[in-house]
Amino acid sequence: MNSTSEFFSSYGRFRASEIKGRYLSRNDLEKQLEELKKEYPVQEIGRSFLNLPIETIQAGNGPVKILAWSQMHGNETTTTKGILDLLNFFLNSKEDPEVKELLQQVTLLIIPMLNPDGADRYTRENVNGVDLNRDALANKEPESKVLRECFEKFAPHFCLNLHDQRTIFGAGEKAHPATLSFLAPSMDSSRTINENRKKAMQVIVSMNTALQEIIPNQVGRFDDSFNLNCSGDYFQAQGVPTILFECGHFQEDYLREKTREFFTFSILTVLRTIASGSYLQENFEAYFLIPENQKNFYDVILRNAVVAGEKVDVAIQYSEKIKAGEVIFVATVATMAPVLSHYGHKEINCKGEVVENIDETPLSENDIVEAILLNKEKLLIK
Ligand SMILES: [Zn+2]
Fold first, then answer.
1. Residue 26 DSSP SS3
2. What's the gap in Å between 113 CA and the centre of ligand 1?
3. Contact by Cβ (8 Å): 273, 321
4. What is the distance in A from the centroid of ligand 1 to the CA of 373?
5. Domains in the chain and their CATH numbers?
6. Cα 80 off chain centre by
7. H or E element: which one contains 312?
8. Which of 84, 150, 189, 215 is the most buried (most CB within 10 A)?
9. What is the pLDDT of residues 134-187, one digit of tens each?
10. Distance (Å, rounded) from C-alpha 243 to C-alpha 161?
11. How far is the CA of 119 from the centre of ligand 1 (A)?
């Protein structure tokens, strides 16, 4: 198989390039499935509340069974994009002996879009307003039932729970965005580390080692407080090693096209280490050396601004809105304080100059600020 650098330099050859940006609807997926069906077994396994199909795609036919699901949260699309790229990568590397071997070792069953109603609406929740990642135990929503039934029928050896996280997260205390974060969810409230959870940790350690080569310091570890309503915790508690993936911010990459590549690399690394069993050589305790995710970032910070006569730091956060099938980012003043200890993905030093809204009114929290006046001159925020 390709070296890491070859993997990234050849990415354009297997990128599902029709799919890009943050919005990925059921219709967008459908077009991809039409093509994938020619090469992979694709099976409808159920329907959403609004009666949209939910499918699995199967890659490989080996004895080690891995179940992955993406877009359980409809507005979290990076891992779906990455999964489509991965499937293309396999097709492109058909003749590669290592890829052949890999696909003889594992059966990867992927649900590319568990929440198609939420995907179309670009919402986290399903159309009933339920967060499916809090419905694992109750198992009330149709989409949750589809996942549960698939889990029970397939009886996987590993589960991969695929998500996006917000730009507010950093990996550890320093100024490193959490480009990818992982969790080996707890299986009980005392956070016991049994053999299965240990395996999930070992796989993450193996993956983290590979990722440090390409995104040093930008891998985080999620908090492991136990919540049996979460799918990851629920499946871990059923004795299946489960890994949560959270795709996050990479410098200047709001459309998550770079993170998409890092994710594809990380899931490929997972498959390789599981297929070869090499993860079993890892020290699971190294998992705890991965820096914990912190909420320590805003999208933009205006440092040393003067607002209504006071010297402050101004934090600006983007929110995502869907408009004509595209995600747009709305910049809003999140908070102002004399000194903010957070980091900004972008920081602007205002050097004690006056900052105002574009209509010359003083800045206040919740103002929408596509642009501001800095010392009476217009400055674009985005
Ligand atoms: Zn999520």
1. helix
2. 12
3. no
4. 36
5. 4-295 (3.40.630.10), 298-380 (2.30.40.10)
6. 9
7. strand 310-323
8. 84
9. 999 999 999 999 999 999 999 999 999 999 999 999 999 999 999 999 999 999
10. 6
11. 12
